[in-house]
Design a protein that fits this description.
- The protein has a single domain, classed as Rossmann fold.
- The chain is 31% helix and 19% strand.
- It is built from eight helices and nine strands.
- A six-stranded mixed beta sheet has the order 5-6-7-3-8-9, sandwiched between helices. It has a three-stranded antiparallel beta sheet with strand order 2-1-4, covered by helices on one side.
- Helix 6 links the parallel strand 6 and strand 7.
- The protein starts with 9 loop residues before the first strand and ends with a helix.
């Protein structure tokens, strides 16, 4: 685990006891778990993994909203909404913070970062340079790497939703290295991911969301890692079931 130097601004997240029980997102497995069990976050990097529909992205989005970050992505100063699609969960979470405040914070939501880049250009005033240039003048993956390189800094609190969506293997390794550097400089990351590359980050905590709840797992036991290894070892065992 990370100890010396790693940031630790968010300690745990729980649920308001009067949260509704029916309908999306309140019937998601992770929300059912939160009714009686807080999710704990250690210093440094915490990854959330799980199958599609387990609620990991919904939880990260709701935490971002609960922390005052823009639901489509960005910082607390961003207030645009291309299409309000966030769930109601953010209004029911109880995010427990530790003493001390981060210097910087940001929510990277991979599927809507195009909208963030557009808003950065609209605001102008030198803001584009702070992001390493226009996100529309480079590839999607390059814009993610530029964001982490230029906009993210020491003692930051960063929530990322599936950042690997636009990254090559080389790009994922570049992001991993930047996360290592920023964690050593006092930052904390909470990341929803399917990437076995990002999960290899040394010292990271990995929380796996299943239908039965949330459990801490090792790198080797994390589903994205074990399933990827099984597929690469014997692709035909998976492909023979295709119609």
């Amino acid at each position: 685990m990370w100890t010396v130097g790693a940031g630790h601004f968010v300690a745990r997240v729980g649920l308001d006891p009067e949260t509704p029980e029916q309908g999306y997102p309140f019937d998601l497995p992770v929300v059912r778990w939160l009714r009686s069990n807080p999710v704990l976050f250690g210093p440094g990097v915490t990854f959330l993994v799980g199958e599609n529909g387990s609620g990991k992205s919904t939880l990260v989005e709701a935490m971002a909203v609960g922390l005052g970050l823009n639901a489509e992505g960005g910082s607390r100063s961003f207030r645009f909404a291309t299409r309000a699609s966030e769930s109601e969960l953010g209004g029911h979470l109880r995010v427990a913070r530790r003493p001390g405040r981060e210097r910087n914070s940001f929510f990277l939501r991979a599927e809507s970062y195009y909208n963030v880049a557009t808003e950065v250009e609209r605001l102008g005033g030198g803001l584009t340079e702070a992001y390493g240039g226009s996100g529309h003048e480079r590839s999607h993956g390059e814009s993610f790497i530029a964001l982490l390189t230029h906009r993210f800094g020491p003692r930051g609190l960063y929530l990322l939703d599936e950042p690997e969506a636009a990254l090559s293997l080389t790009g994922a390794l570049a992001v991993l290295q930047r996360m290592v550097d920023l964690t050593a400089q006092g930052s904390q990351f909470i990341v929803a991911t399917h990437s076995p590359v990002l999960l290899a980050l040394p010292g990271a905590n990995i929380l796996e969301l299943t239908g039965d709840g949330v459990r801490r797992v090792s790198y080797d036991d994390a589903a994205p890692v074990s399933l990827t290894r099984a597929f690469l070892d014997d692709p035909q065992a998976f492909l023979r079931h295709l119609g």
